[in-house]
Amino acid sequence: MTTDFITFVENELRATDNKLTTSALTSFLRSVRKHRVDILSPESIRLWVIDMLLAGYNRATRKKYSGKVHRLYKEWKKEAGADPFEATADALNFDTDFNTEHVKKNLSRVRHLITKAIEAAESQDICIFLYLLYLPSVTIGELVELKFDDATPDIPQVHDIIETMRDSRRTKYMFGLGQGKQRLPQIERQLLAKLRATLHRHGFELDPVFSRLTVTAIWIEAALKTDIPVEEIRALVKEIPPTRPYLALIKGTPLTDNRKTEILAAVADTINDIKSQWYVMNMRANKPDDIKRAIRLNAPRLYDRITFYYPTHKVLAEAKKRKTVRKEIPYLPGLLFFRMRNDKVSQLFSRIGQYAWCYRQTTHPDSPYSVIPRAEMKKFQQYIGQFTDDISMELIPRPTPFDIDDKVYVNGVTPLAGNLCVITSVRNNDGTRTYNLRLSATTDCRWTIADIPEIYLDPATV
Question: Among 220, 58, 212, 13, which residue's Cα sits nearest to residue 132?
């Protein structure tokens, strides 16, 4: 039904020479395409109203536009029945004033807050503000109770905050806010007052009443700038700030956990594209200690902010007089994994290029450095800890990029022949399973381990 109506509207648009009708129909069609509307419903009309609000159309213009489309709908439908326009009177008559100019300015101030030198006394306050900003569904009460071992979304900027807080040497709560000494309401009041004072000192334009919604409003501004659909924004905010009252007109669309993380990561990148990530370097003819010494000597300010990972294991080797000794050897000789801020990698290798080189996405010298996703690195480290003598690892040059999670069609003689599948791991004939860790577009690290119980395997979804 909707497709037919949309086609009807498209035909009317081509036939009309009326300026108002052209503007109204163009606005409607742009909205239904943007939100991938399958069925014309009150919700899809509400989304169109919000799109008109965001485009700056006043109430009179919105009424004229919706009236034009409503008349076309009646003409197209002809027979009596439910009319989605009649169920959206609240949206069509929406006339609540809202101003977001100060919120836009505050979003721009976040960048200055992140890049400027921060006094030690303000460090925790700013980390708390950024944590609330990156994760809009976290309440103040939940933040107060956060512990280091609590699960958090896989967002690099959030993990940077957690690592910064680990430096405080607290062992229980992530943020030191006097937990156990004061009641939660008192902690919340004091925290909000402190956050407001800190942000005000850094040029933020804030109302006298500062709350969790003040931070949420900035996140929504960043989400809109990231082109996140409003129905997905609505799904991720528990309460609606007064600067965005129109969000009350719609319901949030159901989101998978993966999509939630995807949105949060994209908005976090809009707010702050500086983040720590995993990379891998080839050490030429050097050893990890040589690399670390070179960094301390040539880039001392970078050294303390780099995490190194060089997996090794012990083996028995024959020494003189037929004695055996334990030797520690690397799983991947010549490769050193490291985690650091993405904006500092180029600077690092301009200082230590004679000692090592970093893998890039392609073989082109100007290609971006190849990032190892944190989830892959976590899985890699987890299985490193389980390695035994029957594990083999090797570097695999790949002329054509091919990776775990790629969708493939099976064309062999198998019950799966002809089906679309997703590569999750490779199970070998001897009962072992082979895993790949992508180092770059042309090189993988492969390791083989005895097959693991199904309880440790997640089902793949296509």
Answer: 212
